[in-house]
Amino acid sequence: MTPHHHPSEDLIASCAAGTLRPGAALVVRAHLARCPTCQADAGFFESLGGALLEAEPPAQMSDAAFDRALAAIAAPGRRRAPGARSASADSAFLPKGLEGLAVGKRRWIGPGVWVTPVKTEHRSRELVYLLRIGAGMVLPRHTHSGREFTCVLEGSFADDDGVYGPGDFVATDERVEHSPVVARDGACVCLASTDAPLVMRDVIGRFFQPFAGI
Amino acid sequence: MKGMHGAIAQNFDAGRPSGRSVNASSNAPQRSAADALVVAIARHQDRDAFAALFQHFAPRVKSYLIRLGVSPAQADELAQEALVVVWRKAALFDPSQASAATWIFRIARNLRIDALRRDRRAAAYEPDPSDAPEPPPTPDVHRAQRQRDERVRAAVASLGADQLRVVQLSFFQDCPHAEIAETLGLPLGTVKSRIRNALQKLRAALEESQ
Q1: Across the interface, which of B63, B75, B109 has its CB nearest the CB of A57?
Q2: Do B80 and A59 touch (CB under 8 A)?
Q3: What is the pLDDT of residues B61-111, one digit of tens each?
Q4: Quick check: A125 and A198 in contact, CB under 8 A?
């Protein structure tokens, strides 16, 4: 099944152009991995990138640039060992193309509910995390900070605006206040990013209430 | 190695590197001189071809990176690195899927994203999904993508200098329209209509290729 909820064309364009914040770009790419329509749009913007690159006014390269490049191609290639880093079990939730990302320790918020930071290693101050909520659970009514992007990786949830299944993309900000309900037939796992200065504790706090008394 | 591709390299230096072979109505994917250079590197480790590609693309990659906000010194280094990646990955380049320009654009974009990482050795992943995009399912899809590249390039080539300028600002620099108006000293309405007209042309190119 292909997703029903998509990122805006502007987001896809800035992801393709390389101007989007890296954490947000990860969430957009998680959607692209499952959405042939948006993949085609992204492909168009990459074609545009190639065409604009051709049209760029050439900048003056430094004097030594070409000699350095020649020396680099003469040297044996640095071998980057993929998989040298041990991906944790939770990395398995990540979609194609992102599966190598390292994922931190799970922090359990309540039965069936956990969050774990995704280690993007970017200097950017975004927070990227996986959130898992058990089947049939209702999240406490909450709002968002800054621009937040979410992509459903597994399962589905619903709020007043609709039902979100695998690959569906949701953009939220301060104006969105909702209380999502996870479908009864399975847990829901999402990849989310926020550009607000949040730390994991804030994310946990947002969802903590309903489970406190359990 | 002074190989058979020296001639290609020379033509590439002298003439327009691309666009000449573009025929938007043709069904056969067209190959540009730049594509031939990458293929020459893949097949023969052709250093003349590398020199020609470097001369053409490194300064453009540098210019693109500066637009993204990279310092000129780092942009210079990343542009060198991008061309070194072109050399190393030349065998992965498939001209039936993408033009060399689009492929090099993706490499440069990804290198810059990599460069944003705090500690490159600690980088958790080397996805490079962009250097080798999702393998499309059929040769038809390959051809469609390649045609899209050519059509978009033809559409960009047909933009007037003023339109090109706003598209560059809007796409490569992610500038809001109001900022573009300020940068260019133009009324906001003019900027909006230029962007609208440019996008119409580009979208027409997209629709033709679908």
Answers
A1: B63
A2: no
A3: 999 999 988 999 999 999 999 999 999 999 999 988 889 999 999 999 999
A4: no
Whether residue B132 contacts residue B90, with contact meaning beta carbons closer than 8 Å, is answered with no
Provide the CATH number for the domain formed by B6-135 in this structure.
1.10.1740.10
**Coil, strand or helix: which one is B105?**
helix
Is the confidence at residue B31, as pLDDT, over 50?
yes
Question: CB-side exposure of B35: number of CA atoms within 13 Å?
Answer: 20
Q: How confident is the model at residue A153 (pLDDT cuts 50, 70, 90)?
A: very high
Question: Tens digits of per-residue pLDDT, B61-75?
Answer: 999 999 988 999 999
The rounded distance, in Å, linking the Cα atoms of B184 and B192 is 12
Phi, psi of A107 (to 5 degrees): -115, 115
The whole-angstrom separation of Cα B6 and Cα B145 is 29
Q: What is the mean pLDDT of residues B24-40?
A: 70
Every domain of chain A and the residues it spans: 1-79+90-214
A44/B152 CB distance under 8 A: yes
Mean predicted confidence (pLDDT) in B139-166: 83
CA angle B142, B65, B132 (to 5 degrees): 25
Q: Which helix (H) or strand (E) holds A128?
A: strand A127-133
Domain boundaries of chain B, sorted by first residue: 6-135
C-beta neighbour count of B51 within 10 angstroms: 18
Name the residue type at position B100. Answer: A
For residue A16, is pLDDT > 70? yes
| CATH, domain range A1-79+90-214 | 2.60.120.10
Residue of A56, A66, A103, A147 best to disrupt the B interface, most CBs of B under 10 A: A56
Site of tokens 């037939």: A185
Provide the terminal-to-terminal Cα distance of chain B, rounded to the nearest Å: 41
Interface test with B, best of A53, A103, A119 (most B CBs within 10 A): A53
**B148 has a chain A CB within 8 A of its CB:** yes
Q: What CA–CA distance (Å, rounded) separates B40 from A77? A: 19
pLDDT more than 70, % of chain B: 71
